[in-house]
């Protein structure tokens, strides 16, 4: 099978391969590891937290919390803390999706993890999951003099553009996600899979996504 004929399988990370919003939990971990960071973040939370839910102000809020979490840390220190956090966070793995990913690898497919979680955390989590050789396309950060700053996003339609930038021809063959925000990714796929979606998200995604959508659940949650 040549590179041009290999099937492409794209996986989300958060709530698809591992449970939870990885970078949000990591940022919270950094904020509460020292009292001064926790104190300042609690003071600013009434201002920043509501901004997370509005598209025009979301980036400002993320930047603010990220700066509070990383101020005073070098890039090497930030990466080391991300790797430490990943070792625990990767234990929240979602087996049904990871099994599918391994099946794609065994079949010789090109497997890409595309996630809004930022590097270096996304790469560290994938390494802990035993996926160090799988391609990872993640949000990117830049180390500044006073902390880490978001540079390139990877959410919603940005995921499709980042795939194009990586040389992936659309449509892709398989897309796996849990999230309504990944509707552009699902629409760019021939075969679409939802990992343990809520009933509300499932109904909305089925209504919005053309073609069939297959739901995958762990054995304990299958109905």
TrEMBL record:
Ranges in coiled-coil conformation = none
* Originating species: Micromonospora halotolerans
Q: Which domain of life is it from?
A: Bacteria
Instruction: Spell out the protein name for this chain.
Output: Haloacid dehalogenase-like hydrolase
For the keyword Membrane, the answer is yes
Asked if Transmembrane is a keyword of the record, the answer is yes
Listed Pfam families:
HAD
Q: Where are the transmembrane segments?
A: 36-54
| Alphabetized UniProt keyword annotations | Membrane, Transmembrane, Transmembrane helix
